[in-house]
Specification:
The protein is an alpha+beta fold and 331 residues long. It has two domains: 139 residues, PurM-like, N-terminal domain (60s Ribosomal Protein L30, Chain: A, 2-Layer Sandwich); 160 residues, Phosphoribosyl-aminoimidazole Synthetase, Chain A, domain 2. Helix content is 33%, strand content 22%. It has ten helices and 13 strands. The strands form three sheets. A seven-stranded mixed sheet has the order 8-10-7-11-9-12-13. Strands 3-6-4-5 form a four-stranded mixed sheet. The chain has a two-stranded antiparallel sheet with strand order 1-2. β12 and β13 form a beta hairpin. α5 runs parallel beside α9 and α9 packs across α10. Bound molecules: adenosine-5'-triphosphate, thiamin phosphate and magnesium ion (3 copies). The site of adenosine-5'-triphosphate has 5 residues, from α3. Adenosine-5'-triphosphate (ATP) binds next to α3. Catalyzes the ATP-dependent phosphorylation of thiamine-monophosphate (TMP) to form thiamine-pyrophosphate (TPP), the active form of vitamin B1. Pathway: Cofactor biosynthesis; thiamine diphosphate biosynthesis; thiamine diphosphate from thiamine phosphate: step 1/1. InterPro entries: PurM-like_C_dom, PurM-like_C_sf, PurM-like_N, PurM-like_N_sf, ThiL-like. This is Thiamine-monophosphate kinase.
Length: 331
């Protein structure tokens, strides 16, 4: 029992974990009572939740506890940013077996704390329960700062689709880990600790974005949600997707012939999930900073090309290949 959370007990563990989190201007009452009280300066709070399950989302042999902490924050605060909001606070449900080392819980918490410092939020509560499967369920809250939220449903024909943040790197990192081969550090680190462009969410709202979401399941599949919600069609220009040199190197290490590497890398940029980049639709006359890379156009839904499994997204005018993540669909 020594050095396991079973030895420490639930309430000591809660005290140790919550002691790591600073208070911020968004916190009226932090952890310790029946609920937290969070400031909502304009009267609205953006709320979202995502779950990480060991074996499904991470493996302890591939990711450190700190990595999982970073990732739990990143995937949730990316959803807040994708609404055009500023990340403020988190609640963390922590379900773990009793023989989990205390050190793992401490390191996970340090990862949460450090990613919160990057995103600008903090933790105000959570829950600790026993479970055979290590599972992290995070609720994130955010503040719109008086602005209108950027929904998935506002894209209009003529809009430009632009992305900011990495694409394909996390999928390449995962493939390297699955293959048991070493590869570019950037791919491995983006898989273990995604780096969503948090501030770009509110920036997109200021720039007049008509629709936005973060890329968790794959660019094509996720933009399909925008296309359906907005009643439009989206055509992506594959040649506007410029693979990072590290992504090209990773696909070569994974066995792609050098001359095919750009195409394979673009395939990962189109279908790879978990980068938590932001993709948004902007009016054609929007003046976008360079980090928002135009990657496609919004068209009338009636111009939709292709048949079969059409998510309302084409690539270079042709039906997009599948490949996005579906937790319950065919693998
Ligand atoms: N069990 C559920 N009950 C109610 N709403 C849900 C449930 N699961 C998902 N949703 C809602 O469905 C919408 C889409 O969920 P989804 O999880 O695909 O989005 P996401 O969190 O942006 O993506 P990802 O989970 O891949 O990061 C969200 O508004 C989410 O709150
Ligand atoms: C061990 C292990 N195996 C597979 C994957 C790949 N994976 C899991 S969930 C997901 C989509 C986003 O999830 P969600 O929709 O729940 O946010 C992806 C691409 C992984 N990360 N770790
Ligand atoms: Mg979700
Ligand atoms: Mg999302
Ligand atoms: Mg998903």
């Amino acid at each position: 029992m020594r050095n396991t959370i079973g030895g420490l007990g639930e309430f000591t563990l809660i005290t140790r974990v919550t002691a790591q989190f600073p208070t911020t201007d968004d916190v009226i009452l932090g952890p310790g009572d029946d609920a937290a009280i969070v400031a909502a300066p304009d009267g609205r709070t953006v709320a979202t939740t995502d779950v990480l399950v060991e074996g499904r989302h991470f493996r302890r042999e591939w990711s450190s506890a700190r990595d999982v902490g970073h990732r739990a924050v990143a995937q949730n605060f990316a959803d807040i940013a994708a609404m055009g909001a500023r990340p403020t606070t988190l609640l963390i449900g922590f379900a773990a077996p009793s023989d989990l080392p205390v050190q793992w819980a401490e390191d996970f918490t340090a990862g949460v704390r450090d990613e919160c410092a990057v995103a600008g939020g903090t933790v105000v509560g959570g829950d600790m329960v026993g479970s055979d499967t290590l599972t992290i369920a995070v609720t994130a809250l955010g503040d719109l700062g008086g602005a209108d939220p950027v929904l998935r449903s506002g894209a209009r024909p003529g809009d430009v689709i632009a992305c900011t943040g990495p694409l394909g790197l996390s999928a390449a990192g995962l493939a390297l880990l699955e293959g048991g081969v070493d590869g570019p550090a950037l791919c491995l680190s983006e898989h273990r600790r995604p780096s969503p462009p948090y501030a770009a969410g509110a920036e997109a709202a200021r720039l007049g974005a008509t629709a936005m979401l973060d890329i968790s399941d794959g660019l094509v599949q996720d933009l399909g949600h925008v296309a359906r919600a907005s009643g439009v069609h989206i055509d992506l220009d594959s040649m506007s997707l410029e693979p990072d040199p590290e992504l090209l190197e990773a696909v070569r290490i994974l066995g792609t012939a050098p001359e095919r590497a750009p195409e394979t890398a673009r395939g990962l940029m189109l279908a790879g999930g978990e980068d938590h980049a932001l993709a948004a639709a902007f009016p054609p006359d929007a003046e976008l900073p360079a980090h928002w890379r135009p990657v496609g156009r919004v068209r009338q839904a009636s111009e939709k090309a292709g048949s079969g499994t059409d998510f309302g997204v084409t690539v270079d005018g042709s039906p997009a290949p599948g490949g996005g993540w579906d937790h319950f669909g065919p693998g």
